[in-house]
Amino acid sequence: MAELTYDSTLRELRTDRGVLRYHEAGEGTPLLMLHGSGPGVTGWRNFRGNLPVFAEWFRCLVLEFPGFGVSDPTDEHPMAAAPEAVGRFLDGLGLDQVDVIGNSMGGIVAAQVAIARPDRIRRLVTIGGLGRNLFAPGPSEGIRLLAEFTEDPTRDNLVRWLYSMVHDPALITEALVEERWAQATDPATLASARRMYGRGALAARAAAAADTAPYWAMLHKIRARTLLTWGRDDRVSPLDMAIVPMRTIPGAELHVFPDCGHWAMIEQKDAWESVVLAFLTRKDGAGLGER
Description:
Largest sheet: 8 strands, mixed
Order of helices and strands: HEEEHHEHEHEHHHHHEHEHH
Mean pLDDT: 93
Structural class: alpha/beta
Distance between the termini: 34 Å
InterPro entries: AB_hydrolase_1 (IPR000073), AB_hydrolase_fold (IPR029058), AB_hydrolase_sf (IPR050266)
Protein name: Alpha/beta fold hydrolase
Keywords: Hydrolase
Organism: Actinoallomurus oryzae
Radius of gyration: 18 Å
Domain AB hydrolase-1: 30-267
Helix content: 40-55%
Number of helices: 13
């Protein structure tokens, strides 16, 4: 396979609510890859290291959510806009059903789509993020540091947040800091982040949660075969968050990676890819929970 670069894989899909940008590589069963949130995040940065492996097996589609500086912007809360963007994206490409890998926020969005439209997702893989804290206090260290950067976007605050994402601090290189800093401080992207993680936004979300059923209370409605992957040392979404989805999603499986923070697909790349590929390529009817 030819080298997969940013430019060679970048695509655009024009929709009635703006341009959705994405990266595409490989052929076969469509595999939608949904990125997380946080300063300077993009789908490409989340999954560029994994794309060559999965593109050998799947038609990989790495969607860039509106509100993060790559696809056209949105006036909505980015997480509220994301499930609809997934629907527009699948409709625009004429895809009735896909497998999905969702990192953190991307996993939550994928779960929301799987709850609302169970026919659209065949198999679901999440990376941290899904569920709710049962034992660890909230908000977590990573979320607190994310809010601090959003309120006071300094380079030092960005670096502190990045260190909370990983178990091994050697992963936070100067090049990583630079590429994250450039995007995270773009005015439109920063304004979008404040709608998600500013202190006022976090307080409003907590108040609203008192009157509405949270998404995690609906996880029992998911019909896609589901694999939850988690870093044992995740300081953004602590491991105890996995208990609710593990127990309530029918047939869900959980794989925990040691010496690993929030970015399992990066920090335990080879092991994570092996586990996820085995799950996605398992023949129908193999193992418990297949429907």
